[in-house]
């Protein structure tokens, strides 16, 4: 590591420990040290040293991951990209930006808004997550029901490979089909194939106007029917979020939102169309609020943004991330409720309902080193239910280490064999985030 | 090939020759035979036999490709998927379809329209091209300026690998991040990694209403400015097509559209917004036609669909496919005009202008076995100009064999090495469409 300028390497265990975890409850390994990369050259130097010494490298953004993708491995170097924060270029005319991986997601969006554009992917952690972490997990968010996930906004990458060579993939153009889609392969690979040091991102025109409604329902099935109706009517929602009663209750206990005893679910929807049309499509709703000013809209969407902090007040949270075909949403939520009852576990559910992406949050006693067995048993049932419904273990958080146990149920041995074959092409020494993702 | 039922294998050279070409002018190799697969089992049997006998296999859809991806190799088996035409499932509620590779692209769209949905990708050949061919090349089209390319509409695949094993990739859900993006890797791989035998496609809501305009300009730069203005205003066009004077003249000579002597370019635009707004954004236009009925809209878009047949009346066509950042469109078109003048070659240009994807069509004497040297010299200049402008050799047609000569200029040795490494993982015997794409 002599190639790195002073101050870039941390080795004090008290300090390095704080870089060893993401937001999961997995007991991390003990890192050798932490590199605070400030440039591509720092990344190259680190990867060369790691290859020479056969030391595993765990790349890291802001550590907001929910699957353990950035969790330390014993004897690894943590390679933090969070100091590489330059927006190298922003071209309003071409609707692209070239950015470094440490740029905060919401900062990217704000920079684009100055030109009437937006950066669409908005994971719930977007005010603290980095673009690099979003690329590693192929992050989704609230707006992806209309605009797609991180991969859909990524045109090209600069990547440092395991041996320190620098690769450029993709392009600055909207379309291109020269060779295999290496860009798409890196996005979502959880730092196992290379370290992204720059990305060419696609920006989009910000919508001219947004209509916002919030509807309350006395049954989950009615709420799911409203989701289907809003989609089928062609409203093209840019946000379509569902919260269950457990979630609403946790918000009500904190902020006193006047939750009715009969309310079982709330749907929050945004589109560029008419609020009245969306309200009318929530036929079975017990109450519909329509925002008539941007402030009122922020207030309604703000309810959804309160969901996670409200849950965290109740205990420690294991946040899961199953995704099912949209029509199976009611069955998925029923399965979650049944698992909660059977194992006497508190599960509070929010869903990116338009995508069929459901986040059951398992809440358990504070202070435990990891979730108790009943939580894992309930989670196991939820995962299996999602797969039975034609769904997937993870819509947007990634596999990390958290979902390794269930991975084989979804993908099978042939996919595993091919994934490991690809890994071998990019990282023959298996030093890049070994044991994650695949 | 004994495993195949009778009538599935053709070996008469007079017959097999007609399966040896796509729509390029490359002299094809001589195939051993043609397999007309009717099921996945036929594909498995073919791939097993080919692996056992080390015989190269060239998968083939409708043969509408423009880069030689389906051109026969000496001693190969042509594996035609065009008889696998089942739409296995179409779920309006989940907005997905599961289809076989021989389904005609426009048939997929028509099946979706019966449910208020559409299949968005619409390459110009969509009435005769197959979904399998579209997947192989990651085909684009007119609507992809709004809805993206074939990869953006592909959720999962069933693939027969080189040795005959059957792989399932992806999912039925809108989102999913389990493992590497194998689905995206197969799309655009031009049949070099596996043979797609089924695809789970994403359908989209068909727009409620479409506004259509056609605007004439006395300079290309004015037309390009109108493109930029329509995008910047947030019209979200679903079609934004540019035709140069050479193209318009060939249509006028055939259909007598009353082309003005001063007209240098025509722009055709569609959006879900207001036609008057789009017309107003074509500030420098010499004339703007606005469609007030669906029939009038079809007539305006029909002008664009006449472009290729009109060119083919003038001679043989080499259709190219460069793509540049949208702001560089005027420079790209100027470079094409300069190359045409310098080499005394007729080049007629249409562009998916909203994507910066430019199709210069090089027109030359009928009856020649391949394009004359002046055409290649002009094409070489056009390719190099596209790369100099930050663009790519191919926006949507693929590399095939046609663009192999220039591939290294765009991608460099490291990309080539990694692409070949991936190829080796999927096809260690190198029997799947060898020498294509990468």
Automatic annotation (TrEMBL), chains A, B:
GO molecular function: FAD binding; oxidoreductase activity
Domain of life, per lineage: Bacteria
Positions of the FAD-binding PCMH-type domain: 27-206
Cofactor: FAD
Oxidoreductase recorded as keyword: yes
Keywords recorded for this protein, A-Z: FAD, Flavoprotein, Oxidoreductase
Classification via InterPro entries: FAD-bd_oxidored_4_C (IPR004113), FAD-bd_PCMH (IPR016166), FAD-bd_PCMH-like_sf (IPR036318), FAD-bd_PCMH_sub2 (IPR016169), FAD-linked_Oxase-like_C (IPR016164), FAD-linked_OxidoTrans_Type4 (IPR051914), Oxid_FAD_bind_N (IPR006094), Vanillyl_alc_oxidase_C-sub2 (IPR016171)
Short name of any one Pfam family annotated for the protein: FAD_binding_4
Family: Belongs to the FAD-binding oxidoreductase/transferase type 4 family.
Protein name stated in the entry: FAD-binding protein
Source organism per UniProt: Microbispora oryzae
């Amino acid at each position: 590591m002599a190639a790195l300028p002073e101050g870039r390497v941390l080795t004090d265990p008290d300090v390095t420990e704080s870089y060893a975890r993401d937001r999961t409850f997995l007991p991390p390994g003990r890192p050798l040290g932490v590199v605070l990369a400030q440039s591509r050259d720092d990344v190259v130097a680190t990867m060369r040293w790691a290859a020479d010494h056969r030391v595993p490298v765990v790349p890291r953004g802001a550590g907001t991951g929910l699957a353990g993708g950035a969790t330390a491995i014993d004897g690894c170097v943590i390679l933090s990209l969070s100091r590489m924060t330059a927006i190298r270029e922003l071209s309003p005319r071409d609707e692209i930006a070239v950015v470094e991986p440490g740029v905060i997601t919401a900062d990217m969006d704000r920079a684009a808004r100055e030109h009437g554009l937006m950066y669409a992917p908005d994971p719930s952690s977007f005010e603290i997550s980095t673009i690099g972490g979003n690329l590693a997990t192929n992050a989704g968010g609230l707006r992806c029901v209309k605009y797609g996930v991180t991969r859909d906004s990524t045109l090209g990458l600069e990547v440092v490979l395991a041996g320190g060579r620098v690769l450029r993939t993709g392009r600055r153009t909207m379309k291109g089909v020269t060779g295999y889609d290496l860009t798409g392969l890196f996005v979502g690979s959880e730092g196992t194939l290379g370290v992204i040091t720059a990305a060419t991102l696609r920006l989009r025109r910000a919508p001219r106007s947004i209509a916002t409604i919030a509807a309350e329902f006395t049954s989950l099935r009615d709420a799911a029917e409203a989701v289907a109706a809003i989609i089928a009517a062609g409203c093209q929602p840019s946000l379509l979020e569902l919260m269950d009663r457990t979630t609403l209750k946790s918000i009500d206990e904190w902020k006193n939102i006047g939750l009715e005893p009969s309310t079982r679910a709330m749907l929050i929807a945004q589109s560029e169309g008419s609020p009245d049309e969306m309200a009318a499509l929530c036929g079975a709703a017990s109450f519909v609020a329509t925002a008539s000013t941007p402030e009122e809209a922020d207030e309604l969407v703000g309810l959804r943004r309160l969901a996670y902090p409200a849950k965290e007040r109740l205990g420690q949270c294991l946040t899961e991330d199953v995704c099912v075909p949209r029509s199976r949403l009611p069955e998925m939520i029923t399965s979650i409720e049944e698992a909660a009852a059977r194992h006497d576990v508190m599960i509070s559910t929010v869903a990116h309902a338009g995508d069929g992406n459901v986040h059951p949050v398992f809440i358990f006693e504070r202070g435990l080193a990891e979730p108790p067995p009943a939580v894992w048993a309930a989670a196991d049932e939820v995962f299996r239910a999602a797969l039975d419904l034609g769904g997937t273990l993870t819509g947007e958080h990634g596999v990390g280490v958290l979902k390794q146990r269930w991975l084989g149920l979804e993908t099978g041995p042939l996919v595993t064999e091919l994934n490991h074959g690809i890994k071998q092409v990019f990282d023959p020494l298996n030093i890049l985030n070994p044991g994650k993702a695949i």
